[in-house]
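quick one, 139 residues, struct below
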Amino acid sequence: MTHAHELPIEERLRHSGLRPTRQRVALADLLFAKGDRHLTVEELHEEAVTAGVPVSLATVYNTLHQFTEAGLIRVLAVESSKTYFDTNVSDHHHFFVEGDNHVLDIPVSNIAIGNLPEPPEGMEIAHVDVIIRLRPRRG
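---
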């Protein structure tokens, strides 16, 4: 059985309900070519410019949000000013290295979460994100 993440980029986009435009394909190629990773809009835009892909920052922003809505990537809001897009959509958590602005995956099996509050009437918990902030030891 072929999983969606094993399909060619054009097929992955179609499978997710997105038309495989030239810019979407180019950005998806950059985004998924290096395995699981965490990128900001600005970082992907810089990679696109370096690779000779003519896209604006707004196009990268809009495309990443379309990929998120289609379930291809996840949004990870680390701080109010920093949003990362995660190509690993499986259940997992994150380390965030403060000062270095680097995000690392933590397998979900390494963390047990209990005693969650009951969600409000008519709501259900969709996902729990744990972000453990790290910094170099002092002294």
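The two ends are 53 Å apart (CA to CA).
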